[in-house]
Amino acid sequence: MNLRRFFSWSNFTTGIMVLFLVLVLVNPSVKAGVMQGLMKVGLFQPGMPEEKNAESEMAPDMSFVDGDGKTFTLSSLRGKVVFLNFWATWCPPCRAEMPSINALYERFREDKNVIFLTVDTDGNYKKANNFLKKQQYSLPLYVADSQIPGELLGRSIPTTVIINKKGQVAYRHVGAADYGNEKFMAYFEQYIRK
Length: 194
Description:
The protein is of the alpha/beta class.
C-alpha cells in the first residue's frame, strides 16, 4: 500500500466532505446552520399570497398555555393579526428559521395590532424555553392546551400561519422560510395596517 497515495489531497478533501455530510445528517444544529446559510443567499424565501387568495376560511379555534399556566384561545385574539409558528427543538428546519422569526418579532413586538405565538409541538415548555434562552431569542413561547386542528398544522413542522384580524387564515407556509427578509417584513407590515 502506498501511504503517499492514501494521504493525498483528494482523499483528504473527500474525507472532510463525508464527515460534513454525516454531521449534517445526524446533528440538528449543523443542519440548521447549513440551512441558515442557504437562507442568507436567498433560498427558503416565503411566498406571499396573492391578494385574491389572501383571506379564506375562518381559523379553527384552539387554546394555548404560557409558562405561567395562563390559557387563552385563538378566537380571543380577534382584532389582531396573529403570527403562529409551530416548531420543535429537535427539528433542524425549525431551528434554521428561528433567527428570522426572532428578527420579525423584534421589528413588530411593540405593535398592538399583532400577536406572535411560537408553539412547541412537543408540549415541553421547559425544554423549549431553555432552547430559546440559550439561543438568546426573545420570542414568546406557548404550548397547545387543546388538540391542534389539521387546518393549522398538518403533518409537518415548521408550519407558519398568519391569521387576519377577522380570524381568517390569510397565509400558511409549511417548511422553513426566511421571515426576516425585507420583502416579507414589508408584506407583513402592510398586512398589519389593513
